Amino acid sequence: MEKAATKHEKNIVYIKIAVLLAVITAIEVAYPYLTEDIKGLHQLYMPILGGLSAIKFFIVVAYYMHLKFDPAVLKRIFAFSLSLAVLFVSALLLLFEVVEF
Amino acid sequence: MTHETTTGIDNRKMALWVMIGSECMLFGSLIINYLIQVHQIAGVENPDLIRPAQVINVPVTSLSTFVLLMSSLAMVLSLNGLQHGDIAQFRKWCFGTAGLGAIFLGFQAYEFTEFYWEGLGLTANNFGAAFFLLTGTHGAHVLVGVIWLLIMGGWSYRTSFQSEHHSILLEVAGLYWHFVDVIWIIIFTVVYLFVLAP
């Protein structure tokens, strides 16, 4: 996408990504109401919402922040710091028993 | 303007990514602080204690989230315009991004005011303190981004402005803006949507 695409082609790709992000957000907001009577799906609320927001997160980082097309060193910097933050958050979630195994 | 570097990456872009790395830790600690405080007040039996489900307004925040997501689209369209020498597209979407950021801040001001009138101030309880600290820090980042983009847009009216030289500066501003957006994606889920959990 980065090298050969014209300005117009890139604009179209960015708009499609924005539509995808908006659709995922709409699903996130509607999910608890849509699955209210479906016991199995309603119980999966938090994992599914966490998964959907992770998808949105990585779409923005990969395409809008261009990390997908950037040199490996930038990917490593981001991956290292994000992993450290996730590890830190997970450790404290367990330490304060916010989540339990 | 652009200097040769050993990595082949512009130093300003590299610096911004390092800053984003440290910001991951900052927001990680604010998010975990919020979750711990909410978890701890959940076990307190006090009918006067204001809890997240009583004040969080998901429909309004969904709208502000949509505004911030669309500001990210405006940001990439602005950068795409500048990288292709289209100053008009750059300006239109650069100011558009700043405008959408300002609208998001307006939503946040409305929400904070509503919470205040419902009795949830910064010092009301641990939930209030953690909530305002997390969302307020994010709001401050948005404000910095809005000012940054207004300066970038205003700069383009100077005769010394050249798209090939200044596109890297807009790219750096854009990285910051998108990072503020991705952090909100996490905050929206953790603070607002998890409230609806069964």
From TrEMBL, chain A:
Q: How does it sit in the membrane?
A: Multi-pass membrane protein
The protein here is known as Cytochrome C oxidase subunit IV
User: Is the keyword Membrane in the record?
Assistant: yes
Would you indicate the residue range of the signal peptide? none
- Annotated Pfam families: COX4_pro
Instruction: Please give the chief subcellular localization of this protein.
Output: membrane
Question: Which domain of life does the protein's organism represent?
Answer: Bacteria
Q: Which organism is it from?
A: SAR324 cluster bacterium
Q: Which UniProt keywords apply?
A: Cell membrane, Membrane, Transmembrane, Transmembrane helix
Q: Which residues cross the membrane?
A: 12-33, 45-65, 77-96
* Subcellular location, record wording: Cell membrane
Automatic annotation (TrEMBL), chain B:
How does the protein's chain sit in the membrane according to the entry? Multi-pass membrane protein
Alphabetical GO CC annotations of the entry are: plasma membrane
Q: Which organism is it from?
A: SAR324 cluster bacterium
Where in the cell is the protein located? Cell membrane
In the record, the note on similarity to other proteins reads:
Belongs to the cytochrome c oxidase subunit 3 family.
Query: Which parts of the sequence belong to the Heme-copper oxidase subunit III family profile domain?
Result: 1-196
Question: What are the recorded GO MF terms, alphabetically?
Answer: cytochrome-c oxidase activity
Q: Which GO terms describe its biological process?
A: aerobic electron transport chain
Protein's UniProt name: Cytochrome oxidase subunit III
The reply to whether Transmembrane figures as a keyword in the UniProt entry is: yes
* Membrane-traversing stretches: 15-36, 56-81, 93-110, 130-155, 175-195
Q: According to its UniProt record, what is one Pfam family this protein matches?
A: COX3
| Swiss-Prot/TrEMBL keywords | Cell membrane, Membrane, Transmembrane, Transmembrane helix
The record's listing under InterPro entries reads: Cyt_c/ubiquinol_Oxase_su3 (IPR024791), Cyt_c_oxidase-like_su3 (IPR000298), Cyt_c_oxidase_su3-like_sf (IPR035973), Cyt_c_oxidase_su3_a-hlx (IPR013833)
